[in-house]
């Protein structure tokens, strides 16, 4: 998937996979940025530089449950000769109340609580008697069970140096520093950082709204009984799931009958909520292939869609164009279930990523060794065989038929058989596209 064609293929000639993909991507621009809530921004590209408004952490705080002390008071302390300090209070995380630690004093302090004035370090509770007078403690007693724990005396069994068990203000990141640069993809840690610095929203390229509609009068939604000649609509489900997986906000429209007026009306209805339309079925040469029939007739303000044949199997018949005044891109995929799926992965996934401002091609093929021969592959068409990949070896599952949804569900990869290759021996090295 590397070369970019200068001009579309001559009429009648098969388009290569690269030519079709380049035609689609050339027509797409990333969506305009919007400001959205952090969790809605997950997986999106940030379009602003975000700076840190206030230091993180915002104050010196304890990294351990223990006692805030003055280092001079615990110098030389040991279990045999503990430093005995007067406990002047409790400091819980979140408490704004500040006790001051004077000479000979300690404050019981919890992880995350602000270091009190006067103290220079924290002694973990395990290095003290926890105020019990009975040797090393393993934990503090819960405040509810022993409210007196914030008073009395504590025996400290080890010395600490200044700053021990203290997380200094700004030690994570300083005020004014760059938190995240424009162009960053917001994964969970980046969303966490934005929240930590107090940002509730981010300016990002939004997820494209992708409307998926399948076509075919034979289609019945899953859950309903089949009459003779009918089948369940699986494409609208797999394509909607694929669109979500690629990062889109996907809307599944139920199957549309093979009726030109219905299809036209449905497309017009759906245009208003779509950044990208995906259809399945109705693009080959049959008498009821209404997607091709209706969309081939579009012109002027309606937009236009070009139908072409690709040098690939499955996925030969494809349509691409733009609809309506807003020129919403539309990819018309073939109806055979495997063809629709493979076409999505090769063309629609990159299109969604391009609209999000992401690198369109995130799945560079890996090289793998075939575990068994491929007996035949159509000359002049790049074949994508369903397969399972493990540790550099790949095995084809099921046949080449583009109706084989069980084998597709068993697969986790596609073996790429080049256009001019008509058979491959076991042990041959092939390109593999890993799925999921
Ligand atoms: N004479 C020719 N016939 C066909 C050619 C050709 O070149 N000459 N190409 C074949 C190829 S390759 C493909 S791929 C298909 C594409 O056909 P369409 O895009 O027009 O798809 P349909 O005819 O609507 O459906 C094909 C097949 O898939 C089933 N289907 C459709 N939609 C769904 C769905 N949502 N869920 C499950 N299954 C679906 C449909 O029932 C058909 O069996 O054309 C070949 N024919
Ligand atoms: O090319 Mo069709 O997409 O083989 O089944």
UniProtKB/TrEMBL annotation:
Any Pfam family the entry gives: MoCF_biosynth
MoaB/Mog domain boundaries: 211-354
Keywords of the record: Magnesium, Metal-binding, Molybdenum, Molybdenum cofactor biosynthesis, Transferase
Primary role: Catalyzes the insertion of molybdate into adenylated molybdopterin with the concomitant release of AMP.
Classification via PANTHER family: GEPHYRIN, MOLYBDOPTERIN BIOSYNTHESIS PROTEIN
This enzyme's EC code(s): 2.10.1.1
Reaction catalysis annotation: adenylyl-molybdopterin + molybdate = Mo-molybdopterin + AMP + H(+)
InterPro entries: MoaB/Mog-like_dom_sf (IPR036425), MoaB/Mog_dom (IPR001453), MoeA-like (IPR038987), MoeA_C_domain_IV (IPR005111), MoeA_C_domain_IV_sf (IPR036688), MoeA_linker/N (IPR005110), MoeA_linker/N_sf (IPR036135)
Organism encoding this protein: Streptomyces gamaensis
Family (UniProt): Belongs to the MoeA family.
Pathway: Cofactor biosynthesis; molybdopterin biosynthesis
Gene designation: glp
Protein name, per record: Molybdopterin molybdenumtransferase
């Amino acid at each position: 998937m590397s070369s970019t064609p200068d001009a579309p293929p001559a009429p009648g000639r098969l388009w290569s996979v690269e030519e079709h993909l380049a035609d689609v991507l050339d027509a797409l621009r990333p969506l305009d940025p919007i400001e959205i809530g952090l969790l809605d921004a997950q997986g999106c590209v940030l379009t602003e530089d975000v700076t840190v408004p206030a230091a993180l952490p915002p104050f010196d705080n304890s990294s351990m449950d223990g006692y805030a002390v003055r280092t001079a008071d615990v110098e030389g302390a040991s279990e045999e000769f503990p430093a005995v300090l007067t406990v002047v209070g409790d400091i819980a995380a979140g408490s704004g109340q500040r006790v001051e630690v004077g000479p000979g004093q300690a404050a019981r302090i919890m992880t995350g609580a602000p270091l009190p004035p006067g103290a220079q370090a924290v002694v973990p509770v395990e290095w003290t008697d926890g105020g019990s007078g009975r040797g090393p403690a393993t934990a503090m007693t819960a405040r509810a069970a022993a409210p007196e724990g914030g008073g009395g005396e504590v025996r400290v069994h080890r010395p600490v140096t200044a700053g021990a068990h203290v997380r200094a203000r700004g030690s994570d990141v300083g005020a004014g520093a760059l938190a995240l640069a424009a162009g960053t993809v917001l994964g969970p840690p980046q969303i966490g950082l934005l929240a930590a610095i107090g940002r509730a929203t981010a300016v990002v390229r939004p997820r494209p709204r992708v409307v998926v509609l399948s076509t075919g009068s034979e289609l019945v939604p899953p859950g309903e009984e089949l009459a003779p000649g009918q089948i369940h609509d699986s494409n609208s489900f797999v394509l909607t799931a694929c669109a979500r997986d690629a990062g889109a906000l996907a809307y599944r429209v139920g199957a549309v009958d093979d009726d030109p007026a219905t299809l036209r009306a449905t497309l017009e209805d759906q245009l208003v909520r779509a950044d990208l339309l995906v259809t399945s079925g109705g693009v080959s040469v049959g008498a009821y292939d209404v997607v091709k029939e209706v969309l081939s007739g579009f012109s002027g303000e309606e937009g236009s869609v070009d139908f072409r044949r690709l040098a690939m199997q499955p996925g030969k018949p494809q349509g691409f164009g733009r609809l309506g005044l807003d020129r919403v891109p539309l990819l018309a995929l073939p109806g055979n279930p495997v063809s629709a799926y493979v076409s999505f992965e090769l063309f629609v996934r990159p299109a969604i990523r391009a609209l999000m401002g992401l690198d369109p091609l995130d799945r560079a093929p890996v090289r793998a060794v075939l575990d068994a021969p491929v007996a035949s592959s159509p000359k002049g068409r790049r074949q994508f065989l369903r397969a399972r990949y493990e540790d550099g070896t790949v095995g084809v599952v099921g046949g080449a038929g583009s109706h084989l949804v069980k084998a597709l569900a068993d697969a986790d990869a596609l073996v790429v058989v080049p256009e001019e290759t008509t058979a491959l021996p076991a042990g041959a090295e092939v390109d593999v596209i890993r799925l999921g």
